[in-house]
Design a protein that fits this description.
Oligomer: single chain
Radius of gyration: 41 Å
Structural class: alpha/beta
Helix content: 40-55%
Distance between the termini: 77 Å
Number of helices: 11
CATH topology of one domain: Heat Shock Protein 90
Order of helices and strands: EHEHEHEHEHHEHHEEHEEHHEE
Strand content: 15-25%
């Protein structure tokens, strides 16, 4: 086999983007010499004396056309083009043969994907024209392939941009709805404050006049509920304005926060009809660092959500314990219908409610927000009895992250 031979090129009639090399394959050196005599005027020409030797040239990037004899010892020209089609689908093949058997012609077209089939004796002008056509075909196919690749990449980039745009629109919609909620909540703040002032006055009068203890407790529970409602309003408004909660940093007992939350809900008739099982720790828990009132608000939201998910007589349970990693865990569990896995994915998003028109979708959202602002977590699990189990985990003083 002769080594690859590069010849100086003269002016080419083929557009500059077309590749510039042709591979000649024939077991008869005289045929190769004749083909080279008129092809190397405008082309870079490689030679191979067998199909096996021609395989070494298939990875040459400048190659675009293979001109091969059909009948050769070992691998035929069609078999060579079939291998070339698998390794370099961008190449074009031209088969030269003295035989006119139809099966070979069909194989060249269907199996090997031959671009042209020329019978001997061929004329140089016919070969030249076939090579020119093949090179232009290769150029167009490579251009289309590149354009399709670029189009696919642009489509991928466009799909990513559209996804980012939809996400940004969703965020803007959420912010707008939160801002609207904050504005509406601010509109009732004045009336709510007046109501709380009235309850404070009633509480003072009840104490001064030594009214019945049960009545005084009702007044105090009503006052606690109103203050929790006002705190929720202030939290929503604060977050709507700056997406960040301001917190009163202090040390407090998580078990006491749970008791305070239960006290707030004692005026809820639906809560009273449930069979509550409250499990509190036998030994004191390490203190949690954060805003006790906001944590109470989060626990109230979890309890109210559990109450609304159950019917009369069903269990609502709250547990407070120390986890193995030193974090305090507060769990609220109910015997309700539970939640589908797909619902859990967006359960803590703003304005996502499982109650339809009966809920605003802010209770769990605010509870999760408060947990996150305490460097903690809020997760929803399937309860053993088929209901839902919400677990809030907060770091203690010893386990709190630096800067918390």
């Amino acid at each position: 086999m002769g080594a690859p031979v590069a010849n100086a090129q003269s002016s080419s009639t083929v557009p500059p983007q077309v590749a510039s090399a042709v591979l000649l394959v024939d077991d008869d050196q005289a045929n190769l010499d004749v083909l080279r005599s008129f092809l190397d005027v405008d082309l870079q020409v490689f030679e191979a004396n067998s199909a096996d030797d021609a395989l070494a040239y298939l990875d040459r990037p400048e190659l675009d056309v293979i001109v091969t004899d059909q009948r050769m010892p070992g691998m035929t020209g069609i078999e060579l083009l079939r291998v070339a089609r698998d390794r370099r689908p961008d190449l074009a093949g031209i088969v030269l043969t003295a035989y006119t058997d139809t099966p070979a012609l069909m194989a060249a077209i269907n199996e090997a994907g031959a671009f042209r089939f020329l019978r001997k004796p061929w004329q140089p002008a016919d070969v030249l024209q076939a090579v020119r056509d093949a090179r232009e075909f290769v150029a167009q196919r490579r251009l289309i392939h590149r354009l399709v690749g670029e189009l696919r990449q642009r489509n991928t980039e466009l799909a990513g941009a559209m996804a980012e745009l939809r996400e940004a629109q969703a965020r803007l919609l959420e912010m707008e709805r939160l801002a609207t909620t904050g504005r509406l909540a601010a509109g009732i703040a004045h009336d709510l404050s007046n109501a709380i002032n009235g309850l404070v006055l009633i509480e003072h009068e009840a104490r001064d006049r030594a009214v019945d203890g049960d009545l005084l407790e009702v007044v105090q529970l009503g006052l606690a509920g109103a203050r929790n409602l006002l705190s929720s309003r202030e939290t929503l408004g604060m977050f709507a304005r700056q997406r960040r909660l301001s917190m009163a940093i202090d040390r407090f007992d998580m078990a006491q926060a749970a008791r305070d939350a239960l006290g707030v809900l004692r005026l809820d008739l639906a809560f009273r009809r449930r069979q509550q099982v409250v499990v509190l720790p036998e030994a004191p828990l390490p203190p949690v660092v954060g805003d006790r009132q906001k944590v109470v608000q989060a626990v109230v939201n979890l309890l109210r959500n559990a109450v609304q998910a159950t019917s009369d007589g069903q269990r609502v349970q709250i547990e407070v314990a120390l986890g193995s990693d030193g974090w305090v865990e507060l769990a609220v569990e109910d015997d309700g219908p539970g939640l589908d896995p797909e619902v859990r994915e967006n359960l803590f998003d703003a304005f996502v409610s499982t109650k339809g028109e009966g809920g605003m979708g802010l209770g769990l959202y605010m509870a999760n927000l408060i947990a996150a602002h305490h460097s903690g977590t809020l997760t929803c699990l399937a309860a053993a009895g088929g209901g839902a189990r919400f677990v809030m985990r907060l770091p203690t003083v010893a386990a709190a992250p630096a800067g918390a």
